[in-house]
Amino acid sequence: MSESVASLTLLLEQHAPWVGLTGAGISSASGIPTYRDHRGHWLGSQPIQHQEFVEQEKKRQRYWARSILGWPRVHQARPNQTHHDLVALESAGIISGLITQNVDRLHQQAGAQSVIDLHGRLDRVRCLSCGHTEARSHIQNWLEQHNTLPSLTSVTLLPDGDADLPAAFIDGFQSPHCETCGGVLMPDVVFFGGTVPSERVQACYRMIDEAEGLVVIGSSLSVYSGFRFCRYAIQQGKPLIILNVGQTRADELCVRKFDDDPFSTLSQYVAQLDSQTPEHQHV
Ligand SMILES: [Zn+2]
After folding, report:
1. Of 6, 232, 244, 263, which one has the fewest beta carbons inside 10 Å?
2. What angle do CA 129, 134, 137 make, to 5 degrees?
3. What is the distance in A from the centroid of ligand 1 to the CA of 149?
């Protein structure tokens, strides 16, 4: 066993259960690029700010026009090994729950039971006037019926596989409205400049209160809404572990950082856990 697997094993088993705080790094192996997290952010565009979306029809047209092409990629994404490893750790009692900054619902798809979607979920839209919610897939059908997708020849393909859309397509785009009251529909996610509902933040704090430590997986913690939980865990005297490639905002706070192929380290730990599980528990 490598030093890092041995060290991770020791830490996780000494302080279990842990809360996992996950980010975009986890979903990249599922084909969802890490450089954008889909909170108002599609196809290489600048992220739309919460206030702009709420106040400006032009910004909403821009958002929906890009998302009509970007959504299928997220919708078709499937959980990868790391999502499955975290489910195994939850079943084994090593992890008590997850706080995820991802809006792709891949943890739930993998079978995770206790997950808080810190930044909301992309598979749902919400009416800003009456609160009515609707499946994003339903909205996708509406968008496709009411808009003509630009021909491939008029779309400029960018080097990273994204597309640059013709201005005329965006300007004439039909944005969806609430079927109940006609109000403005917004993806049920926290855009940049938006606020995470306080009851959701409190639920995260409670989850950390009831655990023994916090483990960050696949996040650079660049957004304060996630980073605050690292500070909170430290204030509570709980250890912080980080599994992430590259620098994070909490590097100074953690007891150990695994940055050399961290997901594989995690998988090796989980595999070893499996081999220790008696046969009769596999039914
Ligand atoms: Zn409504």
Report:
1. 6
2. 140
3. 27
